[in-house]
Amino acid sequence: MEKEKFYLTTAIAYASQKPHIGNVYEIILADTIARYKKQRGYDVYLCTGTDEHGQKIEDLAQKKGVTPKAYVDDISGEIERIWRSMNTSFDRFIRTTDDFHIQCVQKLFKQLYDQGDIYKDKYEGWYCVPCESFFTETQAKDGLCPDCGRPVKRTEEEAYFFKMSRYADQLMEHIEKNPGFIEPESRKKEMINNFLKPGLQDLCVSRSSFKWGIPVSFDDKHVIYVWIDALSNYITALGYDKEQPGENFKKYWPCDVHIVGKDIMRFHTIYWPIILMALGLPLPKKIFGHGWLNFGSDKMSKSKGNVIYSDDLLPLLGVDGIRHYVLSEMPYAADGSITYEAMISRYNTDLANNLGNLVNRTAAMTKKYFGSVIPAPGVGTEFDEDLKETAHKTAVSVQEKLDSYHVADALEEVFSLFRRANKYIDETAPWALAKEEANKARLETVIYNLLETIRIGAVLMSSFLPESAEKILTLLGGAEAAWDSAFVFGTLVPGSQVGEPVVLFARLDEEAVLADIQAKKQAKDEPAEKEKPEGLAQISIDQFMQVELRSAQIIACEPVPRAKKLLKLQVDLGYETRQIVSGIAAFYGPDDLIGKKVIVVANLAPAKLCDVESQGMLLAAGEDPIRVVFLDPETPNGERVR
User: Fold this and answer.
1) How far does the chain reach from its first CA to its final CA, in angstroms?
2) Is 461 exposed, middle or buried (0-12, 13-18, 19+ CB in 10 A)?
């Protein structure tokens, strides 16, 4: 009988810089679901890759002195290497610079143009390069980005636009008829209330002010913008072609689930479905938006020194240690948290103590009491029945939770089973049973039940921690690993040989590990040599003195509502208190700033950002990350900075 197909994707990573552990979480999550579906007997196809076009990459390549293609070749290769280092089993790694992708995108853009969904017009407004976003005159008040507060560029360029409103009602109807189309539910409500109900504006789908992109085949002054270029990878990777669709496309489309971060849900739940509707193609069955993996409660930021990379964690936790942490710590519909202390604690508690100790103890007892031969079960008690019932309920629950993408909850169920097995050891006290020959039959049952519970747990955790699960099943003499076997207690064959006891996860010394991490961090933080700026216009001393720089103390700070990148600060200038709005929320939180002494441009004309008045500007260095210039705490407020 032909296997049922299951096609899933991650969002393709933007090839601008090395991904941190929060980015890596997504491929680990997708791989876990893919492995689970394979265990269930599905014909699975997992697609991931890199998004490699755009002005940001063109600018980064220019700064580095290389071509954009050379730049993305390097970053894309690094991303694929990191994905593979996490033992992820993707079937396709697509790059938007692949020839077949470029040709397909050009064809579908032409199709949308020919059928009247795309038209040419002129774009007039403001553009923020770091955010890669367009803003209207009203949105970009005083020439500043409403999201990050940095200067925007006045842009007047010819562009092609997609008629989004033409399909808005059709999309709303589809969402209403398919309750599971957008998950979690909170993300669905956000998309409907914030974007669909207020009405959709036509979408800019080409650019003519830079060259690094896929050219419009019939108008080479334009390159196709990210919405059509990047999003269409989900079908181009399968060999989509309107006239002659590839076998993989016919087999696997529509996608069963797109796994994406919550910050790009709008593009995947509104733009992408509408593009597919216009192409006359079936929509994905589900778009699942996961949360962010924050450092503690803060977003990861280079300026805060809280960015964590999987490469740095591998020597510490190993592949399965990393997989276990990120999968355990990301709730179904909320953000997750990561700190070194929390990682070490969970590693020691779950992996070293709970799982590792259980496997090692049980293998050691099997060797000591039965010469490493699996005994046949015999005499039973109520403790045995409770253990068996727990094992069965765990298998049922893990399957239900994985089917509904409650992955962290499913993994917790597996480790609850291991904790129950450890409790069973205390209840049955096999070391005491071994003292009397009359208790041998009972001891045989206890050891068998422990080995079988470990086997079931290993089967259930195979998609989460594949390397460790394989080691355990090998230790158990190549025990049955099929998914359905987890629902049957008693599959282990008595008389089979158990391997030598092994330490799966060695306990970590928290103090020593944290000291090592700090030492490595200090070594990495050595200042890098900076390029000399060129072509700066000179100004006179009189012109410079017209800028009034004053020392000030931040006395209050809070986020600006509906503006993820803005903070509202109250600063004491000594002679007065002012309100300043600054685009540094991605790099600093209120606790990082309150009480700090800073430099303020005091004679800057007031401006409004997101309808909040700003009466000055902080001095800071860099763009990504931004680093605020802090003064000596003893500096009096209101002093002139020269």
Assistant:
1) 80
2) buried
Cβ of 239: how many Cβ atoms within 10 Å?
A: 18
Q: Measured between alpha carbons, how far is 147 from 133 in angstroms, rounded to an integer?
A: 9
CB 205 within 8 A of CB 229: no
Long-range contacts for 399-402 (Cβ within 8 Å, ≥24 apart)?
402/33, 402/36, 402/463
DSSP three-state, residue 528: coil
Tokens representing residue 484 in the block: 């359905």
Q: Tell me the residue length of the chain.
A: 642
Q: Which two tokens stand for residue 140?
A: 């970009």
Is the backbone of residue 214 left (phi > 0), alpha (psi -120 to 50) or beta? Answer: beta
pTM of this structure: 0.81
- Written as one letter, the residue type at 370 is F
The whole-number mean pLDDT for each consecutive block of 10 residues of the chain, a chain of 642 residues, reads 93 95 97 98 98 95 95 97 97 98 98 97 80 71 75 86 96 96 95 92 92 96 95 98 93 98 95 98 98 87 78 95 97 93 96 97 97 93 95 98 98 98 97 95 97 98 98 94 96 95 93 85 60 58 76 90 81 90 85 90 81 86 81 88 84
Type and span of the H or E element at 26:
helix 21-39
Report DSSP letters for 121-168, one per residue.
EEEEEEEETTTTEEE-TTTSGGGB-TTT--B-EEEEEEEEEE-GGGGH
